[in-house]
Design a protein that fits this description.
- By secondary structure, the protein is an alpha/beta fold.
- Strands 2-3-1-4-8 form a five-stranded parallel β-sheet.
- A hairpin with a 5-residue loop joins strand 5 and strand 6.
- The two termini are 13 Å apart.
- The structure holds BIS(adenosine)-5'-pentaphosphate.
- BIS(adenosine)-5'-pentaphosphate binds next to helix 1, helix 2, helix 3, helix 6 and strand 6.
Length: 214
């Protein structure tokens, strides 16, 4: 099954994708992670994307679509989860063209719904391991020993630049204007699945699994 997962910033897309990768063996295609890796490696793509990402704006469509195209061309039949793409209707239409060309089908578009008042707490408290990308939260998912990553042991745990107050405000606005309309888009296509993204991460995962079966 090939799916995409979308929702507001901080809805838990990355958290749920990680669980699906671990338990269902799917390939995770996260445009945010791809951009952050390009920034870390100071590639031309990373240099171009950095200022957009740090300020909470979308990276231009043509750059993002080309990046996703290159990944999908090499997917070789593995089931995938697209996380963070598409982000607007232009990208959604481009995705259809890309999938047609590589002869793949999108089975479901999972929308994670989280109350707006929870999102700022989730984003401002998030911490990420720079080495392996594992995601924590200072209150709801702290490091087990308080200083190093539970997953890889690195002590390089940081706060994303776009998780600071001003960027969070911009990201929420961009979401409302550009990404939220995708709910209607996928409802009309007949493959929208809506899941409540609050409660424990395990509970949300169970709801997604159930919704994908129906
Ligand atoms: P991206 O990395 O995709 O950011 P985002 O969509 O804003 O999503 P986040 O990564 O912030 O949140 P998430 O939903 O994955 O939540 P998480 O699981 O981490 O994109 C970053 C930037 O890249 C964009 O702003 C843009 O500039 C650029 N970009 C990316 N894609 C693009 C595209 N297609 N086009 C153009 N530009 C693009 O969880 C968040 C926190 O909540 C964590 O601390 C976690 O522990 C906690 N949490 C998770 N689940 C729960 C739960 N059930 N209960 C309580 N806390 C929870």
């Amino acid at each position: 099954m090939n799916i995409l997962i979308f929702g507001p910033p901080g809805a838990g897309k990355g958290t749920q994708s990680a669980l699906m990768v671990e338990r269902m063996g799917m390939k995770h295609i996260s445009t945010g992670d791809l951009f952050r890796s390009a920034i870390k490696n100071k590639t031309p793509l990373g240099i171009e994307a950095k200022s957009f990402i740090d300020s909470g704006k979308l990276v231009p469509d043509q750059v993002t679509i080309k990046m996703v195209e290159e990944v999908l061309e090499q997917i070789n039949g593995t089931s995938f989860i697209l996380d963070g793409f598409p982000r607007n209707v232009t990208q959604a239409q481009a995705l259809e063209g890309l999938l047609d060309r590589v002869k793949l089908t999108l089975n479901k578009a999972v929308f994670l719904e989280v109350p707006a008042e929870d999102l700022v707490d989730r984003l401002s408290g998030r911490r990420t391991c720079r080495s392996c990308g594992a995601v924590y939260h200072v209150v709801t998912k702290p490091l087990k020993n308080g200083k190093s990553c539970d997953n890889c042991g690195s002590q390089d745990i940081y706060q994303r630049e776009d998780d600071k107050a001003e960027s969070i405000r911009t990201r929420l606005k961009v979401y409302e204007e550009s990404t939220k309309p995708l709910k209607d888009y996928y409802a009309k296509k007949g493959n929208l699945v809506e899941v409540k993204g609050f409660g424990t991460a395990e509970g949300v995962y169970t709801s997604i699994k159930q919704a994908l079966k129906n």
